[in-house]
Protein backbone atom coordinates (compact mmCIF):
# COMPACT_ATOMS: atom_id res chain seq x y z
CA UNK A 1 0.00 0.00 0.00
CA UNK A 2 1.09 3.57 -0.68
CA UNK A 3 -0.39 7.01 -1.24
CA UNK A 4 0.16 7.95 -4.86
CA UNK A 5 0.66 11.59 -5.82
CA UNK A 6 -1.90 11.25 -8.62
CA UNK A 7 -3.91 8.10 -7.96
CA UNK A 8 -4.35 8.65 -4.24
CA UNK A 9 -4.38 5.61 -1.90
CA UNK A 10 -3.34 2.47 -3.76
CA UNK A 11 -3.60 -1.05 -2.44
CA UNK A 12 -2.51 -4.10 -4.40
CA UNK A 13 -2.77 -7.66 -3.13
CA UNK A 14 0.77 -9.01 -3.46
CA UNK A 15 -0.59 -12.54 -3.80
CA UNK A 16 -2.30 -11.52 -7.03
CA UNK A 17 0.99 -10.46 -8.61
CA UNK A 18 3.34 -13.05 -10.04
CA UNK A 19 6.82 -13.24 -8.57
CA UNK A 20 9.11 -10.89 -10.50
CA UNK A 21 12.24 -12.09 -12.25
CA UNK A 22 15.08 -10.15 -10.65
CA UNK A 23 18.17 -11.82 -12.09
CA UNK A 24 18.43 -13.70 -15.35
CA UNK A 25 20.01 -17.11 -15.59
CA UNK A 26 23.08 -15.50 -17.14
CA UNK A 27 23.49 -13.28 -14.07
CA UNK A 28 22.15 -10.05 -15.58
CA UNK A 29 20.29 -7.96 -12.98
CA UNK A 30 16.97 -6.71 -14.29
CA UNK A 31 15.30 -3.32 -13.93
CA UNK A 32 12.99 -4.22 -11.05
CA UNK A 33 15.88 -4.94 -8.68
CA UNK A 34 18.44 -2.54 -10.16
CA UNK A 35 16.15 0.48 -9.88
CA UNK A 36 15.29 -0.37 -6.27
CA UNK A 37 18.97 -0.59 -5.30
CA UNK A 38 19.87 2.58 -7.21
CA UNK A 39 16.97 4.60 -5.82
CA UNK A 40 17.74 3.45 -2.26
CA UNK A 41 21.48 4.13 -2.46
CA UNK A 42 21.01 7.52 -4.12
CA UNK A 43 18.28 8.61 -1.73
CA UNK A 44 15.69 9.22 -4.43
CA UNK A 45 12.71 10.95 -2.85
CA UNK A 46 10.19 11.13 -5.72
CA UNK A 47 9.42 8.82 -8.63
CA UNK A 48 7.03 10.02 -11.36
CA UNK A 49 6.24 7.55 -14.13
CA UNK A 50 3.50 6.10 -16.27
CA UNK A 51 0.41 4.38 -14.93
CA UNK A 52 1.55 1.14 -16.59
CA UNK A 53 4.12 0.82 -13.78
CA UNK A 54 1.63 0.66 -10.91
CA UNK A 55 2.00 -3.10 -10.51
CA UNK A 56 5.80 -2.80 -10.63
CA UNK A 57 5.59 -0.16 -7.92
CA UNK A 58 3.73 -2.54 -5.59
CA UNK A 59 6.54 -5.07 -5.95
CA UNK A 60 9.27 -2.45 -5.58
CA UNK A 61 7.70 -0.95 -2.45
CA UNK A 62 7.88 -4.39 -0.85
CA UNK A 63 11.50 -4.79 -1.91
CA UNK A 64 12.51 -1.35 -0.60
CA UNK A 65 10.94 -2.09 2.75
CA UNK A 66 12.62 -5.50 2.85
CA UNK A 67 15.96 -3.73 2.32
CA UNK A 68 15.07 -1.30 5.13
CA UNK A 69 15.14 1.57 2.64
CA UNK A 70 13.08 4.73 2.48
CA UNK A 71 10.10 4.41 0.12
CA UNK A 72 10.00 7.39 -2.27
CA UNK A 73 6.87 9.36 -3.03
CA UNK A 74 5.34 7.74 -6.14
CA UNK A 75 3.09 9.38 -8.71
CA UNK A 76 1.73 7.56 -11.76
CA UNK A 77 0.56 9.78 -14.59
CA UNK A 78 -1.64 8.99 -17.57
CA UNK A 79 -0.22 7.39 -20.67
CA UNK A 80 -0.15 9.41 -23.89
CA UNK A 81 -1.96 8.17 -26.96
CA UNK A 82 -2.02 9.45 -30.52
CA UNK A 83 -4.64 11.95 -31.75
CA UNK A 84 -7.09 9.13 -32.50
CA UNK A 85 -6.43 7.30 -29.24
CA UNK A 86 -3.90 4.93 -30.77
CA UNK A 87 -0.94 3.71 -28.75
CA UNK A 88 2.30 5.63 -29.11
CA UNK A 89 5.49 3.75 -29.82
CA UNK A 90 9.10 4.59 -29.07
CA UNK A 91 9.76 3.50 -32.64
CA UNK A 92 7.93 6.56 -33.99
CA UNK A 93 10.89 8.65 -35.06
CA UNK A 94 8.69 11.70 -35.66
CA UNK A 95 8.35 12.03 -31.89
CA UNK A 96 12.09 11.97 -31.20
CA UNK A 97 13.47 15.26 -29.91
CA UNK A 98 16.02 15.35 -32.73
CA UNK A 99 13.20 15.19 -35.28
CA UNK A 100 11.21 17.90 -33.52
CA UNK A 101 14.36 20.03 -33.49
CA UNK A 102 14.85 19.41 -37.20
CA UNK A 103 11.29 20.66 -37.80
CA UNK A 104 12.13 23.85 -35.95
CA UNK A 105 9.89 23.09 -32.97
CA UNK A 106 10.84 25.40 -30.11
CA UNK A 107 11.97 23.85 -26.79
CA UNK A 108 9.62 26.08 -24.81
CA UNK A 109 6.69 24.89 -26.91
CA UNK A 110 7.52 21.28 -25.99
CA UNK A 111 7.99 22.12 -22.31
CA UNK A 112 4.80 24.19 -22.13
CA UNK A 113 2.78 21.33 -23.58
CA UNK A 114 4.33 18.55 -21.52
CA UNK A 115 4.08 20.51 -18.27
CA UNK A 116 0.28 20.67 -18.50
CA UNK A 117 -0.97 17.95 -20.88
CA UNK A 118 -3.05 15.42 -18.99
CA UNK A 119 -3.75 17.83 -16.14
CA UNK A 120 -6.79 19.88 -15.19
CA UNK A 121 -4.93 23.04 -16.20
CA UNK A 122 -5.02 24.51 -19.72
CA UNK A 123 -1.99 24.16 -21.96
CA UNK A 124 -0.62 27.67 -22.36
CA UNK A 125 2.66 28.83 -23.80
CA UNK A 126 5.14 29.98 -21.18
CA UNK A 127 8.29 32.03 -21.76
CA UNK A 128 10.51 30.82 -18.91
CA UNK A 129 11.09 27.79 -16.74
CA UNK A 130 9.99 29.78 -13.70
CA UNK A 131 6.62 30.40 -15.36
CA UNK A 132 6.29 26.66 -16.00
CA UNK A 133 7.10 25.80 -12.42
CA UNK A 134 4.66 28.34 -11.02
CA UNK A 135 1.30 26.67 -10.54
CA UNK A 136 2.63 23.18 -11.35
CA UNK A 137 0.88 20.68 -9.10
CA UNK A 138 1.34 16.95 -9.69
CA UNK A 139 -1.98 16.16 -8.00
CA UNK A 140 -3.83 18.01 -10.80
CA UNK A 141 -2.78 15.36 -13.32
CA UNK A 142 -5.07 12.44 -14.07
CA UNK A 143 -4.70 8.76 -14.82
CA UNK A 144 -6.95 8.48 -17.89
CA UNK A 145 -5.16 8.14 -21.25
CA UNK A 146 -4.32 11.54 -22.72
CA UNK A 147 -4.35 12.32 -26.43
CA UNK A 148 -1.16 13.88 -27.78
CA UNK A 149 -0.91 15.45 -31.22
CA UNK A 150 2.57 16.57 -32.25
CA UNK A 151 0.97 19.11 -34.60
CA UNK A 152 -0.20 21.06 -31.54
CA UNK A 153 3.44 22.12 -31.19
CA UNK A 154 3.39 23.93 -34.55
CA UNK A 155 1.22 26.94 -33.57
CA UNK A 156 2.90 27.06 -30.18
CA UNK A 157 6.28 27.27 -31.90
CA UNK A 158 4.99 30.05 -34.16
CA UNK A 159 3.87 31.97 -31.06
CA UNK A 160 7.37 31.64 -29.60
CA UNK A 161 8.91 32.93 -32.84
CA UNK A 162 6.47 35.86 -33.02
CA UNK A 163 7.76 37.00 -29.64
CA UNK A 164 11.46 36.81 -30.47
CA UNK A 165 13.64 39.90 -30.53
CA UNK A 166 15.69 40.63 -33.62
CA UNK A 167 18.81 39.72 -31.65
CA UNK A 168 17.44 36.19 -31.28
CA UNK A 169 17.40 35.69 -35.06
CA UNK A 170 20.35 37.90 -36.01
CA UNK A 171 22.51 35.03 -37.25
CA UNK A 172 19.72 33.74 -39.48
CA UNK A 173 19.06 37.20 -40.90
CA UNK A 174 22.76 37.70 -41.54
CA UNK A 175 22.94 34.39 -43.40
CA UNK A 176 19.92 35.43 -45.48
CA UNK A 177 21.65 38.62 -46.52
CA UNK A 178 19.45 41.09 -44.66
CA UNK A 179 21.48 44.32 -44.28
CA UNK A 180 22.34 45.01 -40.66
CA UNK A 181 20.71 48.43 -40.74
CA UNK A 182 17.40 46.96 -41.91
CA UNK A 183 17.20 43.90 -39.69
CA UNK A 184 15.17 45.44 -36.88
CA UNK A 185 12.53 46.92 -39.20
CA UNK A 186 12.53 43.80 -41.39
CA UNK A 187 11.94 41.49 -38.42
CA UNK A 188 9.23 43.76 -37.03
CA UNK A 189 7.36 43.45 -40.34
CA UNK A 190 7.74 39.71 -41.01
CA UNK A 191 7.89 37.93 -37.67
CA UNK A 192 4.11 37.64 -37.47
CA UNK A 193 4.28 35.62 -40.69
CA UNK A 194 7.23 33.44 -39.68
CA UNK A 195 6.62 29.94 -38.32
CA UNK A 196 10.13 28.88 -37.21
CA UNK A 197 13.48 30.52 -36.49
CA UNK A 198 15.02 28.97 -39.57
CA UNK A 199 12.44 30.78 -41.70
CA UNK A 200 13.32 34.20 -40.27
CA UNK A 201 15.15 35.27 -43.42
CA UNK A 202 12.77 33.64 -45.89
CA UNK A 203 11.01 36.90 -46.76
CA UNK A 204 14.15 38.82 -47.61
CA UNK A 205 14.43 37.74 -51.29
CA UNK A 206 11.03 39.35 -51.86
CA UNK A 207 12.18 42.65 -50.37
CA UNK A 208 15.40 42.41 -52.36
CA UNK A 209 13.41 42.25 -55.57
CA UNK A 210 13.91 38.54 -56.21
CA UNK A 211 10.29 37.46 -55.85
CA UNK A 212 8.62 35.88 -58.87
CA UNK A 213 5.51 37.92 -59.73
CA UNK A 214 2.28 35.94 -59.78
CA UNK A 215 0.03 37.66 -62.31
CA UNK A 216 -3.09 36.20 -63.91
CA UNK A 217 -3.47 36.85 -67.65
CA UNK A 218 -6.57 38.94 -67.04
CA UNK A 219 -4.65 41.11 -64.56
CA UNK A 220 -1.49 41.69 -66.60
CA UNK A 221 -2.54 44.97 -68.21
CA UNK A 222 -3.91 46.20 -64.89
CA UNK A 223 -0.65 45.44 -63.06
CA UNK A 224 1.41 47.03 -65.84
CA UNK A 225 -0.62 50.21 -65.52
CA UNK A 226 -0.28 50.15 -61.74
CA UNK A 227 3.51 49.79 -61.92
CA UNK A 228 3.67 52.76 -64.28
CA UNK A 229 1.97 54.82 -61.57
CA UNK A 230 4.49 53.74 -58.92
CA UNK A 231 7.63 55.80 -58.52
CA UNK A 232 11.08 54.54 -57.62
CA UNK A 233 12.13 53.64 -54.08
CA UNK A 234 12.70 54.54 -51.35
CA UNK A 235 9.06 54.18 -50.35
CA UNK A 236 7.37 55.37 -47.17
CA UNK A 237 4.61 54.20 -44.84
CA UNK A 238 2.15 56.16 -46.98
CA UNK A 239 3.24 54.77 -50.34
CA UNK A 240 0.81 51.83 -50.44
CA UNK A 241 -2.23 53.97 -49.65
CA UNK A 242 -1.25 56.79 -51.99
CA UNK A 243 -0.37 54.41 -54.82
CA UNK A 244 -3.46 52.20 -54.59
CA UNK A 245 -5.72 55.26 -54.49
CA UNK A 246 -4.09 56.49 -57.68
CA UNK A 247 -4.48 53.04 -59.28
CA UNK A 248 -8.13 52.91 -58.23
CA UNK A 249 -8.77 56.30 -59.80
CA UNK A 250 -7.00 55.30 -63.01
CA UNK A 251 -8.47 51.81 -63.47
CA UNK A 252 -11.74 51.86 -61.54
CA UNK A 253 -10.81 48.71 -59.65
CA UNK A 254 -11.50 48.43 -55.94
CA UNK A 255 -11.52 45.96 -53.06
CA UNK A 256 -9.98 42.54 -53.60
CA UNK A 257 -9.80 43.10 -57.35
CA UNK A 258 -7.51 46.03 -56.68
CA UNK A 259 -5.36 44.83 -53.81
CA UNK A 260 -4.82 41.11 -54.41
CA UNK A 261 -3.31 41.36 -57.92
CA UNK A 262 -0.88 43.99 -56.64
CA UNK A 263 0.10 41.86 -53.62
CA UNK A 264 0.70 38.86 -55.89
CA UNK A 265 2.69 40.93 -58.36
CA UNK A 266 4.98 42.30 -55.64
CA UNK A 267 5.31 39.40 -53.20
CA UNK A 268 4.24 36.34 -55.17
CA UNK A 269 2.16 35.35 -52.11
CA UNK A 270 -1.55 35.53 -51.36
CA UNK A 271 -0.84 36.13 -47.69
CA UNK A 272 1.90 37.88 -45.77
CA UNK A 273 2.84 41.10 -44.00
CA UNK A 274 0.72 44.22 -44.39
CA UNK A 275 1.55 45.80 -47.73
CA UNK A 276 1.79 49.26 -46.14
CA UNK A 277 4.68 47.85 -44.08
CA UNK A 278 6.17 45.96 -47.01
CA UNK A 279 6.62 48.97 -49.30
CA UNK A 280 9.23 50.88 -47.23
CA UNK A 281 11.48 47.82 -47.20
CA UNK A 282 11.41 47.17 -50.95
CA UNK A 283 14.90 47.61 -52.36
CA UNK A 284 13.80 47.76 -56.00
CA UNK A 285 10.79 48.97 -57.91
CA UNK A 286 8.51 46.00 -58.68
CA UNK A 287 8.22 44.92 -62.28
CA UNK A 288 6.58 42.21 -64.34
CA UNK A 289 10.00 40.81 -65.17
The total tally of domains equals: 4
Major sheet characteristics = 2 strands, antiparallel
CATH architecture classification name of the largest domain: Orthogonal Bundle
Portion of residues in beta strands equals: 5-15%
CATH superfamily of the largest domain: Glutamyl-trna Synthetase, Domain 2
Given the structure, what is the number of helices?
13
Mean pLDDT, all residues: 93
Question: How much helix, percentage-wise, in residues?
Answer: 25-40%
Task: Give me the side-by-side strand order of the main sheet.
Answer: 1-2
Cα gyration radius (Å)? 29 Å
Question: What's the end-to-end separation, in Å?
Answer: 78 Å
Order of helices and strands: EEHEHEEHHHEHHHHHHHH
What is the CATH C level class of the largest domain, in words?
Mainly Alpha
- CATH fold topology of the largest domain: Glutamyl-tRNA Synthetase, domain 2
What does this structure look like?
Helix 4 crosses helix 6. This protein is mainly alpha-helical. It is elongated. It contains 13 helices and six strands. The strands form three sheets. The chain has a two-stranded antiparallel ribbon. A hairpin with a 3-residue loop joins strand 1 and strand 2. It folds into four domains: 76 residues, HUPs (Rossmann fold, 3-Layer(aba) Sandwich), CATH 3.40.50.620; 81 residues, Glutamyl-trna Synthetase, Domain 2 (Glutamyl-tRNA Synthetase, domain 2, Orthogonal Bundle); 38 residues, no CATH class; 65 residues.
Properties at a glance:
Rossmann fold; mainly alpha; two-stranded parallel ribbon; 7% strand; 4 domains; Glutamyl-tRNA Synthetase, domain 2; 289 residues
